[in-house]
Amino acid sequence: MSAPELPAGVAEAAGLTAGLDAVLGAGFARLTPDQSARLGDLAAAFTGTPLGPTVSEAVAALGRGELLAHHLAALAAARASLEGARADAVLAVLAARQGLTLEEPEVSAAPTPGPEVAVRMESARQWLVELALAGLCQLDNATIVPVMATLEGIQAHGAMGGLAAVLTGFANELLDHAPTSAIADPPLRRWADLWSRCLLGTYALPEVPTSRAVSGTLTVLGADIRHHDHVVSLVVHGLLEEGGAKRLVRTTLTAWKVDAVAGEEIWNLVRPIAPELVEALATPKALAVSGMTLWSTGDLVWDGSVSVGAAVDPFAVDLSGALLVAPAPRDRHPLQVAVPVVYSGIAVTDRVLDGLAVDLTRVSHYSDYDPPEIDSSDAMVALLRYDEGFSLQPLAGRKGKKVFGPAEGIAAAAKVKAPALDVLRERASKLLRA
Amino acid sequence: MSSFVPHPRPKPKKRKLQKVPFVELFDGRLQGVVSSGSDIHRVYVSLIQAGTGNYYCSTNNNRPCGGLGGGGCKHIAEMVSNAIDQYGAERVARYLGLPEEQTSAWGIIGQLGGTKEKVESGEVFARFLDYLRYVELPASAEPRPDMAWFVTG
After folding, report:
1. Coil, strand, or helix at residue B1?
2. Reported ipTM
3. Range of the domain at A75
4. In angstroms, what CA-CA distances link A42 with A74, A236, A312, A371?
5. What tens digit of pLDDT does each residue of B55-85 get?
6. Distance between CA atoms of residues A205 and A168, nearest Å
7. Residues of the domain holding B74
8. Does B40 reside within a domain?
9. Euclidean distance between CA atoms A344 and A318, whole angstroms
10. What share of chain A is helix, strand, coil (3-state, %, to 5)?
11. Which residues of chain B does A211 touch, with a Cβ-Cβ cutoff of 8 Å?
């Protein structure tokens, strides 16, 4: 197939967010007339939309030096809605190209945060406001380090699990780069994304998607492994056959970690959450699941029972006609677009497959799918992605009878003799006793 | 500019955890916890300040390390060596603000140019305990779209 065409407006919307990002990089405390004008363009683009009045008011207030959290939040919301519109357009193109039926999720209202959660959200919000005033490209340790105490409180509350994961990753990334003014080419768009996501996350808990219990046969396609210094989060993509219906689903397994736990040991952090699922990544077998919770977002929560069936070939799975659900509204962002695709009898030429660039940027080193293996694969499971262009993220592959992917690491993890955590705990006990 | 820019990092090498259970680049310091070579019950805290190159090493009950002469002790060298395994020499040298690229622990130490400057070992122990806190936090089977931005570490 040829490369999908970029829908109208997607590139233009990115231009509008770039204006806001430039201000975030330089700092709202030093707003120049030129920057105010770019914020004005952003506000103008929202004229006639429900966000319009709020964004205009925020831009005017910030221009007058009223540097308040809720004005910054209005801009973060504007930015998120532009990214959401881009994601919607891109996802619709990809679903049509792959012959998938795109569904909308149903979400109900977010739970109201209790007082302990609310106070921690507020504390994180204050820190994010400080970052915006100082400028993401003007940060030093003194501005970044104070969030460490806040992080501990947020990590301790399961209700804020998502905010804790992104805030921890963002704060540590900034610390790695401090002072950020010394960086020649700061990843401004990325940091503005993370800042916006964190700031909006301090105003409301995620909406709860509707859900139902499902039973059916799950075929595991592959895993997208995401991680930063303190979290590893595995997204297992699969095809769930329920009665006559085929549905693309995801199961996410997330664990906290430290950097000493590296290499194959990361599998031992996620395996206990869903042992059969992790095993199926190494040795593909049909999984008969029953009584599992399926969120209307297509997320299959591993809370039911499972029985392991016959061997299956993930590279021979036919996904055409399957149902694919769009992400929940707050998660609509081009980076969240991940459409599974299965190829067999292929040749990757100059890192191009199916008219798309094979992009290794998001391939984790834990995936055990190395560039030469990717280039020589004759079958592949990948995710269709969008970030400044359409691309493929390889998850697993095969050449002849040789399978590439996480199987090796999963097998090695089961044989680890001196787990890193045991060593760390023993050493820590020595210093506590002294 | 891309929304997804993993800051490229070399794949970490296996560290000698028994020898150096904890090492980090934090708040302008390379710091770590180093096991004593002679006494299984003793651990040292070693650190180097970025910029000044000042350094210190003491036991867990704040006794200065006997090996701290002019230019670092073996615990500091072991810490730097493990930091190189964890982060790569380039990142360690850059964090410490060294002018020239270095690939070995003693190469880095030789360039520091600082002097002994006392820091309470408790500060670093507290960071180690905070670090261990992470592995006690519960795992989750719920979606984590927030992790879509990360693929390093």
Report:
1. coil
2. 0.96
3. 8-104
4. 11, 37, 51, 41
5. 999 998 889 999 987 778 999 999 999 999 9
6. 17
7. 22-128
8. yes
9. 11
10. 45, 25, 30
11. none
